[in-house]
Amino acid sequence: MDGTTFKIERREFLKLLAGATSGMMLSGYAFNKLTPVGQAYTDWPERIERWVPSVCLQCSGGCGLMARVVDGNVVKLEGNPLHPVNRGRLCPLGHAGLQLVYNPDRIKTPMKRVGGKGSTQWVSIGWDEAINLLAERLGELRERGQPHSLIVLDGRPTGLMGALWERFCQAYGTPNHLPTDEPDGMRIAHRFMQGLDQLFGYDLENANYILSFGCQLLDGWRSPVQLARTYGYLRQERPGPRAKLIQIERRLSPTAARSDEWIPIRPGTEGALALGIAYVLIREELYDRRFIEQYTFGFDDWTDARGQHHKGFRRLVLERYRPENVSAITGVPVDTLIRIAKQFATTRPAVAIGGAEATLHSNGAFNALAIHALNALVGNLDLPGGVLIGEEIPFKRWPPINSDAVAREGRRRPRLDRAEGDAPWLDTLPLEALGERILNGTPYEVQAVFLYASNPVFSTPTSARFAEALERVPLVVSFASFMDESTAYADLILPDHTYLEKWQDGPAPPLSGVPTLGVAQPVIEPLYETRHTGDVILALARRMGETLAAAFPWTDFKEVLMFSVRGCYEARYGRVFSESFEGAFIRQLQERGWWIPQFSSFEAFWEELVKRGGWSGLFHEYGKWGHIFRTPSKRFEFYSQRLKAELEARAERRGQPLDALLEELNITARGDEVFLPHYEPARFAGDESQYPFHLNPFHVLVLNSGSGANLPWMQEIVGLHVHVKWDSWLEIHPETARKLGIADGDWVWVESPYGKVRIRAKLYPGSMPEVVNIPLGLGHTASGRWASGRGVNPYALIGPAADRLGGLPARYATRVKISKA
Amino acid sequence: MPRWAMVIDLDKCTGCQACVIACKAENNIPFVSPEQAAMGRTISWMEVIPIVEGEYPRVRVRYIPRPCMQCDNPPCTKVCPVYATFKNEEGLVAQIYPRCIGCRYCTAACPYTVKYFNWYAPQWPEEMRACLNPDVSTRPKGVVEKCTFCHHRLQKAKEKARAEQRELREGDYVPACVQSCPAGAMFFGDLDDPMSTVAQLARSARAFRLLDDLGTEPKVIYLIEGEWYGPRKRA
Amino acid sequence: MNRILLFTVILVLAVGGGYLVARPFSEVVQPIAFNHKVHIDNGLDCSACHERYSQAAVAGRPKLTTCLFCHETPLTESPEEEKVRQYAERGEEIPWRRLTRLPAHVYFSHRRHVVLGGIACQTCHGHIGQSTSPPSRPEIQLKMNDCLACHRQHGVTTDCNACHR
Amino acid sequence: MDREREHNEADAKLFAPMLETGRPFYLTVGVLLALVLWGIYAWLTQYRWGLGVTGLNRPVYWGFYITNFVFFIGISHAGTLVSAILRLCQAEWRRSITRSAEVITVLVLFFGVANILADLGRPDRVLNVIKHGQFHSPLLWDVTSVATYLTASSIYLYLPLIPDLALLRDKLQMLQSEGRLTSLFMRFRRRLYAWLALGWTGTERQQRRLNRAISVMAVLVIPIAVSVHTVVSWVFAMTIQPMWHSTIFGPYFVTGAIFSGIAALILAMAIIRRVYHLEEYLKPIHFNHLGVLLLVMTLLWLYFTFAEHLTSYYGAEPAHMRVFWTKVTGRYAPEFWAMVVCCFIIPFSLLSRRRTRTITGTVIASVAVIIGMWLERFTIVVPTLVNPRLPYERGLYSPTWVEVAITVGCFAMFILLYVVFTKLFPIISIWEVREGRERALQEAAERIKTYLPGEEVEEVGIGVLS
Questions:
Q1: Considering its fold, how many domains does chain D have in total?
Q2: How far is B15 from chain C (nearest CA, A)?
Q3: How many structural domains does chain B have?
Q4: Contact present, A810 and A798 (Cβ < 8 Å)
Q5: CATH class of segment(s) A186-390+628-640
Q6: pTM for the full model?
């Protein structure tokens, strides 16, 4: 019995001990919970709050920002209510700027690759070392007389940074400042028909009928917020009936979904439809006769100085583009065509806009001409509700450069993206061809590549070849903030600030015709060891000898900005951003020719400019007829004499007949028709019998063609209408899918002559039976934790094709086949 | 007492989802991993509902931005066992995270499915914590959350108005989504003030409310798409 | 019976021990033995150091520059005062610890209470102004019911939303 | 004393489980314990990381746990309600089955509550329900009625247990006096029985009071039981969600509850009979009678199910129809039709014929009903949530191992506690069986006489209502 008692006692004791220990722990924990741990409470937020104006650089829309800064961190981005582009509004991508600035995947210091080409190892280096290294390497190139072998791929060639790069290339001696942003095909029409090289605006706010040929008005075209604002205004704010928006497109995009009518059309036949509409306008005499007579050339048949008779636009259209013919080409029913044409002619002001979908084809230039011809037919050029030819921002001109002999010699070499170095528009090579040229070393070896806001390895067809090309170049320098696909091939990474950390200019894209410039100051201190690329250019120039240094008489980018905006101060029109009621009065005065200076000194102007976030030209002067037609005939040219002259000049130089050149440029028309807006059949990669579907890689507002992919918020909302998040999808017509035995959400293979991807199919009644759609911007293999490995990149399917006349990449010219995976 | 209400003009809405992201930024809404998102655990107080109607080629897509309806007769508050969700005197349906026991009865009872649950404790990469809004708490795991009409903005607006010794004016208090709407499709104000924009628009013949026949009396009022010749408002 | 006694003793010891172990961690120790009373007696107002209580939510703690405004040169021979200049020499801010805290989900605005509501600092902060050395814990530990009682008394909102976000 | 010994010998089998324990018992306990530990581990995982470890999502906010909750609360009707009704009806065949039914009730209620706790996002704040309870929430009604029901059914289990506890006390006392009670545990048990028996000696007065108390509780417990499951159904019916917002949900749930309760009871009885060799106490007639009861409930269940679905179908409100088709032809059709088979086709075909209303037949029917009723709860909870009223992406729900483990753990724990109960207390009411043996025959005969014409017989002072 005693034994048992003892046993119990011991057990009891152990139990008590255990109890006591746990009790002690528990009570200690509880007390700790109840009262603050003093040491931990040194974190003491002050909540000091400021609102700082800036400019959004998530896309090229140029919206003004107000950043809410609390205790040195940006905690919210809102629109700048004074900025005329967005008036306090902001798109989803703009809001997600927070996730860009505070992204954990940012490159935090300058880095140098170790282990030579092909290695994926970088080491952090200091800025001085980095810039010295770069200056040394670039210096060597100049010493060897090869400054032209540097190419600068510039994805944001507008504004002062573009100008700074251009100036650097000039002073350094390379002709190769190459834009990599997506070209706007309508520019070709502006060049050939009006002799102007700029982008035109569209006075949508005053338009009553908007005929959009695949223009993604609400999906990121030019300035998304301004477009959305305009849309809202046209729908329910403007007095009178709602404006009509007709979307002619191969996919029911969000723009098409918000339009009054969606007209599905066979890819690449937009030009034919425009000509079909022209037929109705001409046949029913619904065109603007006064305008045609006074301001156009080549509408009727004409005889040139040598007495040769030429065919006019009218006869060409009446002969060739009868609605039934056009319907057969485009797949648009005849009655729809006639109805649209009549509405377009009678609902004035009516305006026709061409988008990338219509112009990035092998026949893109002619599509653009045909579409733009419609604007001339209704006489709606530089009028309220029409096409606007706007003013440039009056930046102060920079002092001329005294470049040295090496630079001058280098600049004389042909630009790498020009097939034959003739007129800038003719036969410009798309990016993928550039890669081939680097690989082939034609016309010369490339020794150095700068990547600024540019990611060609991701956004180029046959990107593996471009990657190979970068591998081959001895020096690749990237200014990226993220380790993207192209930066992965960089030997030197000089990370730029994100846009909230730096001084910058934000020119708004032309839309309202009014020049608008956003000016941004750094909102927060740079988070990491990054540096403004503008400052890097200046520092680089300073270290590369007298002549280069002399070309850049500024210490940093802020000075460049201050120097340049002096032009606005001195412009004698426009105004620092102001409340709309305040602006309205000044605008009325200025419209009547009055100029009241707002500030007594540039310093006062600058201070207010920075505080309010920018400067704007206030109003557009309509009907500058002498100004908007810079063609040989000083009129709007249906028959483009410039096109004719340049093609003939080239043929002559080569000593070949014109027809042979046309043959080479894949132009089927002959004679006068070549120089008139006409329909050229689009060419597609892949045979129809083997690859039955058109591939339509479409833009998504929130991805901005790829840069939005590492922002989790954007990934969460990417495929709204098909309920897809964090992934790509293939939109396929339900009936087509049924025939192929594909159900919603099935995995499918999409195969083109160039590649093959596995993707989830989504049945979408808004896709045409013969077209499948894949969003652009996903399928990264690098660029951050959230971007990498999600979805597919349709560029893997797209072939390297181009419109050889206009130098437009033919992004929509690939056929694919679909099979169940 | 004002009765806060929102009007959304579907004819102006472009479906861009700026409201969705503005809300996420304003209210410290965590994003979830792709795997969680695939399970349906994305939190989005403001959500755009896409409705694809019709057959090719006459297909129509409607976009309906959907915040919390802030019902005058909310089915969710009735079922909350602990007063973690209730309607306050200004008509806002509040959600009090420190009180919530996470039974998800309110989420199941809400006919609009506007309530979200914190399946895990919300997480951000350390860098991204810096850009959280200090005016709004981050939620713990296991509680229900939803759109609050950005009521923290109301508190700030009220404090500011009082400090300036004036009444709250129209436009002083606007939720983040309304503030950001690029198309100007959203309006906000006091429904009890007959002169306010929302009250005027609410009387429009285009006005309707989601699932109106349920009698929940939502204070989010929609204006239907289409031609209309009545009075117009600029947001 | 003995067993119960033993158990009780151990329980008391355990709880007490736990408290004693945890206690030092829960004390707020200020880097400088700041004397509120001396400053108040010398005619300084709360706002002299806690600058923003009348304009913002957070009253704020004094920045080093605020201290140096008077203490650039020694006013007394106090070694504690000397510490201020030592921090200045090292170019560091004084790491004041926070004494009065609210849970993270409670939003409190000083301006709202002090300026708009006319509540005296003492209501929540007690006699901190009369303290001669930094207290290791707040004199008044506010609980939600305290807030509610005061709100009811003043007839202001008791809406949960007003404080909880 | 003689009679006592006679009884004891006759009922030796009833005492046996409490006095002898073999390997199968430990094996069973071991297996069950392992499952319980698995469930606990799952719950700890869930507590640590949050409900994210389940398969729940938006819009399927409720899943296994709520299904289990409704199911367990339903099973709880086995007992109390069945036994109370049988007692009130003076159904003589009740005597050997009431106890096992009442135990099911009390134990299973805990698991209903446990599943609610498992379902909470913040189990640490569960006391808020008491501190800040809002009575407009049906969940509070649930808390109240379940608590009341738990109290009432515990008392109702305890009261008829008292004479048996006294018997056990005496039995162990006897064994001790014979020096056969060596283990400490047995001595502890003797003290426990003595304490719980409240000094029962079986005097006339005690007997009368006990009978009175039992009859009061039996009357009381029926409305409470009905209310409990009605309130559970109201958790759903008080919302305006399609196919939840239904007026017949109260009776529908109560019917289902009794239905599944009887099935659980039959299953439990069959196992007890088999394991403890109680063939003499739980006879085919018992199974036959319960089988008939089950048959009635099957038909009643079918009636309600049919009514519920027909009204939805005929009304054809779009929101309702989405849920309806999800059940009938859509994603949850397998579960739905399995439910119909389990709850109606199998039990009806087995129970409607006397030839198949055997022990085996009723047990098969019961197993089917238990599975079917769980599926019924599942197809009530989930398809509605899967189909939100607004056209969101339709949710899908597939439970994770955590939910499965917690569910399995709950079942295992319930069975474990049940097994332990049978080892500590008589699972067949010994005194009632004895009472039946001694008096019931005569009483019944006399009672029957009162039904017959002609003979004017004085009301006999028998039965619980006297």
A1: 1
A2: 29
A3: 1
A4: no
A5: alpha beta
A6: 0.92
